[in-house]
Design a protein that fits this description.
The structure holds four protein chains of four kinds. Chain C is an alpha/beta fold. Helices cover 45% and strands 16% of the residues of chain C. In chain C, the strands form four sheets. Chain C has a five-stranded parallel beta sheet, sandwiched between helices. In chain C, strand 12 and strand 13 form a beta hairpin.
């Protein structure tokens, strides 16, 4: 499915991602964890084309995406949501999703018809229902609550019907209760959509609870991979990661 | 908005009806345009004031220019300080074709648009890569470059004295643009058609692509939008309308002058937008009327119009903090919300 | 630093403001002028960098109108001047000119615009058929080019080619006398600067064939810094320098050339130096700059001219400019033509004005003539002399010979294909 | 070729080619006299431009405001200097008045008007500046009249120019270069070494942090505007003896300063210095080689820089 081979990127001598190789299986739900500065976001940025890798391949169903532009990569089927909700502040929820579907169907340049296009409606409706945004469809994005903005961000990625969905800390900046609601949503999404989901998460409880597969990044390298149980009992991970992270964060 | 209102709004505009609604809006636009044109067309019958007709012709020229600038500034978030170069290009292109070759007016008109499209594509391809203030500066630099060229290349452009000796206006299809009323009607037609076309652009799926780019270009590229291409497209489209405005101006003064391609024209365009408002489609048009009235009245009474104009600008920038139409629309929605909140 | 402020303007005040705006705007359309007075419209430059020229035009016209009105007006109708600012923008000049005629009911136009504005107003005059006198544009093509010719437009400004013919012959005489063979030029890079310089060097070489131009500089109009131009001229080491910079640009250039001690090293011919606006401003005026007259009250040295200059100075507490006499002449011509035609009608005035010769303090021989064939002024005072840093500034002016000027002008027109 | 040259009237007599006079340019490089003169002339143009541009870039760096009214400070500096010179006859006092007057003006302008639009759109800030360009020009016209004025060169500098390696260098311009260089050094060292400089740099980097530390950001912003005004005023005062004073004189200087800051990189002081010197040299040598397109050359250079390095030569890379 999504097959990363020898991916490397350095910034002025600092190796942010160094020779990372991992194959995300089809339909898997994988958590990427690691201490601050481990290169998690850089990893996502490389896969989605926000950064150009120095070396390595990013194969999606055998097609190498390394070095392509974000729009091209999105079209190949990699959707992404951001750590800080990245939305279109002046559009309503419904407009956002209708326009996004339009863009995905390559109708974003249509001049002679009026927005919205009828053929974009069903998918937008479906995603709104799926993420529970339907009753807020006419709210302007900027007016949404923090949690809803994060949901809208995910909806934006999802509405493009991706094969792989990358979620960068979907629960960042949320209260405990809201966090669990969000993570339930992610889980439900994965169940219903049958797509490959990769997410970055800080909260170990969440990770161990819902992710069948975990990748641990540290200083740009893969430290360990495995199931929650394997990771929990991995001495290297405990030393390098849990020690520092748990020591620092309450 | 309260939860309740949102729910009610959702009720009244569910998805299938939204579609029908947008079609209705399209007819409404057409209706408004027809009505506006009818009113404008009746004006010469009601009033024999030539100055009023002149005023409307100038409004057409500046209105087309300012509204097209708003496609960039308001809808796409591209602050161009050099949009005036296309106004100048329109005036010079049309004037030169008519003076040197002397083809029928519609042909010169189309040829000028074609030239504008080519030039705008080349300049746009270089400019739209840059963001924010850098985009503003590089467009300004191009504007100054074009202005310098017009001044230097005097054998072709007439230099600082502009295209002299009048631009011929041979009649075509029974339309004689040297007749004042014909010229007036022609510029009204151009204005209404231009506004209608720009309205369509703003309300099309492409218009929403532009809004997305304005709000969050990074995110737009992550949902598969080729931001560069969309920006270039709107840059060229806006240039075409600005060029049309320039042609109306050239017809009005029967000449073209380097001032038409100077940065102050771009500055005036931005000023008009801020005056009228950028969040409403007709904001720039309102701004045009306001600025021209302001200009014409103030210069009538004082030669210190800089102070007067400056104070008016301060009133808008510091007092209202937005253009007139934006202010009115906001005030109206607030009032409506308050009323519906009580009721 | 973010500060949110509630928009603090009430609805009522907004509406009042808009109402007031609409009212003042509508007023001129409501008013319809048909009175015993005759309105004369005058677009000119009252703001921006050359506002001084516009105000001096306004002053001169106002002074003449007072005299004409005191003497009974134009065919019994009192003159009312309507003077508007064009900001020096051609499209504004065109707009203002149209509005003056169409809205304010002006029956005659005085076009006190600089060159490009004058061409714009010329098109309005062509379009509306209104009587129009261009008072300030010195660009020869405005009247010399038959394509520009319309029966209702006249010019009372001096003409670049006239200046250049006499300037060239004056300079040639000095060049021959002092052996000045290597010349440099430094003129503003716009039509007036280029045309005037080209014509000047043409006639300079005609009268002194062994003169050679070894360096040319073309600073931009209103350029603040001339250092690179000054050093370039110094590099070329010419024996003489010609410049048609004017106003503030000329004084900047002189100030900056001064500290390079340029004026000791070459003869300088600056056609626009002998203008009070420049003469009175420059603090360290180098001695002996050759200049053509612009307006100077001691040339022509007649009591009429001195009286006019003194009256202007007394009334406005400033010296008249080159534009002042040109505008005053326009009013004098209109008044005389109107008297002869016994009418204030533009068409009748125009008919009489063609070929009209009037007594005028600014005439080389006490009269000026509106030449019939191209409707432009001839016979005005043209002279060159050297400047000194105090009154009378140009003590000794050598007057130009109009016979030669007209002969060579005819030849020039032929060479340009204007006849 | 004919229609495509930037041609002049047919009767014009030219000794060289049309737009290009590359021979003149080439021959200059073989003569030390020409090189010295043209290089110093470039330095003179550049250093004065630097004084205006550095204030512009400083204000942008700290406040992220494109101060469109900066040219007006230059203009006021010149007028203040002229008036105080006419009243007192002291050149030093004239310079001081020019600089101090505009510093106060800058402070008032920032505190009373600009500070109200920091939260707003960039365009709103530009509009406030634009409004003051219009207002200031008319105010000058009201106070000093529409006619152009001249301050006159102090007698101390009315001396024979120096000859260095065959090149001509007027003493007044040596003073001018000296003052501008001194200003550049004081500014550079002040920002790098002093406490105030560090606070200003911190404010540029992270304003909320500075205010969290209990430092009054309003004071810093006002101070930066005052420094910017002071430098522009000083430039105006230094220019007053050699340039004519008119309402609106700040405009062309402003445009050139913009080119300088954009080429050098908005917010970079070193960039402003290099940009100003480059522009000065383009002007001085361009006038030899491209007498009719010197101005166009500047814009062309700006376009090239912007296209190849959008953030300017020394600007921070834009993400």
């Amino acid at each position: 499915m999504l097959d990363i081979r020898g991916l490397s990127k350095s910034f002025g001598g600092v190796k942010a991602i160094h020779d990372v190789t991992f194959d995300f299986p089809d339909g898997s739900l994988t958590a990427v964890i690691g201490p601050n500065g481990a290169g998690k976001s850089t990893f996502f940025n490389l896969i989605t084309g926000a950064l150009t890798p120095d070396a390595g391949e990013i194969l999606l169903n055998g097609v190498d995406l390394a070095g392509r532009s974000p729009p091209e990569i999105v079209r190949q089927g990699i959707g992404r949501a951001f750590q800080v909700a990245s939305i279109f502040r002046s559009l309503t929820v419904q407009e956002t999703l209708l326009a996004a579907v339009g863009a995905d169907q390559r109708r974003g340049g249509v001049l002679h018809r009026r927005f919205p296009l009828a053929e974009t409606r069903d998918r937008a409706e479906y995603v709104m229902e799926l993420l529970g945004l339907a009753n807020k469809r006419h709210r302007t994005a900027a007016m949404l609550s923090h949690g809803d903005q994060k949901l809208l961000d995910i909806a934006l990625a999802l509405v493009l019907d991706p094969k792989v969905l990358l979620l960068d800390e979907p629960t960042a900046g949320m209260g405990p209760e809201e966090r669990w609601r969000m993570i339930d949503k992610v889980r439900e999404l994965w169940d219903r959509q049958k797509i490959t989901v990769v997410f970055i998460e800080h909260d170990m409880d969440i990770v161990f609870k819902i992710a069948p597969l975990i990748v641990v990044l540290c200083y740009g390298r893969i430290l360990a991979t495995g199931t929650p149980d394997e990771i929990r009992n991995n001495g290297v991970v405990i030393d390098a990661y849990l020690g520092t992270e748990h020591g620092a964060a309450p | 908005m309260t939860e309740l209102q949102a729910a009610r709004a959702a009720d009244s505009l569910s998805a299938p009806r939204l579609e029908a609604g947008s079609k209705r809006l399209r007819y409404l636009d057409l209706l408004v345009a027809l009505a506006a044109f009818a009113v404008l067309a009746l004006l010469p019958l009601v009033s024999d004031s030539k100055a009023l007709l002149d005023f409307v012709i100038r409004c057409s020229a500046y209105g087309l220019f300012a509204t097209s600038l708003n496609l960039l500034v308001g809808y796409t978030g591209m602050i161009s300080f050099g949009h005036g170069m296309f106004f100048g290009l329109g005036a010079y292109g049309y004037g030169l074709i008519m003076q040197r070759i002397g083809v029928p007016i519609p042909l010169a008109f189309l040829a000028t648009l074609a030239i504008t499209a080519v030039v705008a594509t080349i300049i746009g391809a270089i400019c739209v890569r840059l963001k924010e203030i850098y985009f503003a500066f590089v467009t300004l630099a191009f504007q100054m470059l074009i202005h310098s060229t017009i001044l230097s290349w005097s054998s072709f452009t007439g230099g600082d004295q502009g295209l002299r000796g009048g631009i011929p206006r041979p009649p075509f299809l029974g339309i004689d643009l040297s007749n004042h009323v014909h010229l007036y009607l022609a510029s009204c037609v151009l204005l209404v058609l231009g506004l209608l076309a720009m309205r369509q652009i703003a309300a099309s799926p492409f218009g929403y692509t532009l809004r997305m780019i304005r709000d969050n270009p990074m995110r737009a590229s992550f949902i598969g939008i080729d931001v560069w291409r969309a920006k270039l497209t709107v840059f060229v489209l806006a240039a075409l309308f600005a060029s049309t405005g320039g042609m109306v101006m050239a017809l009005f003064v029967s000449g073209a002058y380097p001032e038409f391609a100077y940065w102050t024209i771009s500055g005036e365009g931005i000023f008009i937008n801020m005056l009228g408002g950028v969040a409403t489609f007709l904001g720039p048009m309102v701004g045009t009327v306001l600025l021209l009235i302001l200009n014409d009245t103030v210069t009538r009474f004082t030669e210190y119009h800089g102070i007067v104009l400056g104070v008016v600008i301060l009133f808008f920038a510091i007092g209202l903090r937005k253009g007139l139409m934006d202010f009115v629309v906001e005030w109206y929605t607030q009032r409506r919300d308050r009323a519906s909140g009580q009721g | 630093m973010k500060r949110t402020r509630q928009p603090g303007i009430s609805r009522r005040s907004t509406l009042t403001l808009m109402g007031a705006g609409a009212l003042t705007f509508a007023a001129p359309w409501v008013a319809r002028a048909q009175a015993k007075t005759i309105k004369i419209g005058m677009p000119t430059i009252l703001s921006g960098r050359v506002a001084q020229l516009g105000t001096s035009s306004r002053n001169a016209v106002t002074m003449e109108v007072e005299k004409i009105n005191a003497a009974g007006g134009l065919a019994g109708r009192q003159i009312e001047m309507v003077i508007r600012d064009s900001k020096g923008q051609p499209q504004e000049a065109a707009r203002v000119a149209r509005e003056l005629v169409n809205t304010d009911g002006c029956e005659l136009l005085i076009d006190a615009e600089a060159s490009s504005g004058a061409f714009a107003v010329h098109e309005v005059a062509r379009d509306l058929g209104v009587f129009c006198v261009h008072t300030n544009s010195e660009t020869s093509a405005l009247t010399a080019d038959p394509k520009q010719h319309i029966p209702n437009a006249f010019r009372t400004a001096r003409q670049g080619v006239h200046d250049s013919i006499f300037g060239g012959s004056y300079a040639a005489a000095i060049a021959k006398g002092k052996g000045l063979k290597k010349w440099a030029t430094c003129s503003p890079d716009y039509a007036y600067g280029r045309d005037t310089t080209a014509e000047y060097t043409l006639y300079l070489k005609r009268f002194a064939p062994d003169v050679e131009i070894i360096s040319e500089s073309w600073p931009k109009l209103f350029q603040p810094d001339y250092t690179e131009v000054v050093t370039k001229i110094l590099q070329a080491k010419p024996q003489a320098l010609y410049s048609c910079l004017w106003g503030g640009d000329l004084t900047s250039f002189i100030d900056q050339a001064n500290i390079y001690a340029m004026f000791g090293q070459m003869e300088v011919f600056a056609v626009n130096m002998a203008d009070y606006t420049a003469l009175t401003v420059v603090k360290n005026l180098p001695k002996g700059i050759h200049s053509g007259n612009r307006y100077i009250k001691t040339f022509p040295a007649t009591p009429e001219n001195a009286a006019w200059g003194d009256a202007y100075r007394a009334k406005y507490n400033e010296y008249p400019t080159n534009w002042s006499w040109e505008n005053a002449t326009a009013m004098m011509l209109i008044a005389e033509a109107s008297k002869k035609a016994n009418s204030a009608d533009g068409k009748k005035i125009a008919e009489v004005m063609r070929g009209l010769t009037i007594k005028c303090p600014f005439g080389a021989d006490g009269t000026v003539t509106m030449r019939a064939e191209d409707q432009t002024l001839i016979g005005y005072a043209i002279g060159w002399g050297t400047t000194i840093p105090q009154e009378p500034y140009v003590p000794d002016v050598k007057a130009g010979d109009w016979k030669i000027i007209l002969e060579l002008e005819a030849e020039w027109k032929k060479s340009k294909g204007y006849t | 070729m004919d229609a495509w040259t930037f041609a002049r009237p047919s009767s014009a007599r030219r000794n060289g080619n049309d737009t290009l006079d590359l021979d003149a340019l080439a021959s200059c490089f073989t003569s030390s006299a020409c090189l010295v003169t043209q290089t110093t002339s470039g330095l003179i143009i550049g250093m004065l431009l630097f004084l205006v541009a550095v204030g512009l870039t400083l204000i942008f760096g700290v406040l992220k405001v494109v101060n469109f009214s900066h040219g007006a400070f230059y203009m006021f500096g010149a007028y203040f200097a002229m008036t105080s010179y006419q009243l007192t006859g002291s050149f030093a006092l004239a310079m001081l008045c020019g600089a101090a007057g505009t510093a106060i003006l800058g402070l008032i302008f920032e505190r009373v008007f600009m500070s109200r639009v920091y939260g707003a759109d960039v365009l709103m800030q530009l509009l406030v500046c634009y409004a003051f360009v219009l207002i200031f020009d008319d105010v000058v016209r009201l106070i000093w009249g529409p006619e152009f004025r001249s301050m006159g060169m102090p007698t101390a500098f009315q001396v024979v120019p120096l000859f260095i390696a065959g090149g001509v260098v007027p003493p007044y311009y040596l003073l001018l270069i000296g003052v501008a260089l001194a200003a550049a050094i004081v500014l550079g060292v002040g920002l790098a070494r002093t406490r105030i400089g560090k606070v200003i740099r911190a404010a540029a980097y992270n304003p909320s942090m500075v205010s969290a530390l209990g430092i009054n950001t309003g004071l810093i912003y006002g101070g930066v505007f005052a420094i910017g005004g002071l430098l522009a005023g000083l430039a105006g005062a230094l220019a007053a003896p050699v340039r004519s004073l008119t309402p609106g004189m700040g405009f062309s200087v402003l445009i050139e300063s913009f080119i300088v800051t954009v080429i050098g990189g908005m917010g970079s002081i070193l960039g402003a210095l290099i940009g100003a010197l480059l522009l000065g040299l383009i002007r001085s040598f361009g006038s030899l080689g491209f007498p009719l397109f010197t101005e166009g050359l500047m814009y062309l250079f700006m376009v090239i820089v912007l296209v190849s390095r959008p953030s300017g030569l020394f600007g921070k890379e834009v993400a």
